[in-house]
Design goal:
By secondary structure, the protein is an alpha+beta fold. The protein is built from 2 helices and 2 strands, in the order ααββ. It has helices at 2-13, 20-26, and strands spanning 36-41, 50-55. It has a two-stranded antiparallel sheet with strand order 1-2. The longest helix has 12 residues, at 2-13. The chain is globular and about 35 Å long. The two termini are 21 Å apart.
Length: 57
């Protein structure tokens, strides 16, 4: 889901989003931080971000 949203941003804007909150603010992404740890790492605006989602114990 997060990767799909990042890809959509890339198609529309020509760059991957700089941070997770950008997709939440501009693309309607909702992240369940109560149940999951989420990391979003960007290396460059033209490369897909590394997204890790881990269930909380």
């Amino acid at each position: 889901m997060i990767q799909n949203c990042a890809q959509q941003c890339y198609v529309v804007e020509g760059v991957y989003p700089p941070e997770l909150s950008y997709m939440e603010d501009n693309y309607g992404l909702r992240v369940n931080r109560e149940d999951y740890y989420v990391t979003y790492e960007v290396f460059a605006s033209n490369l897909p971000p590394k997204v890790t989602v881990v269930s909380k114990p």
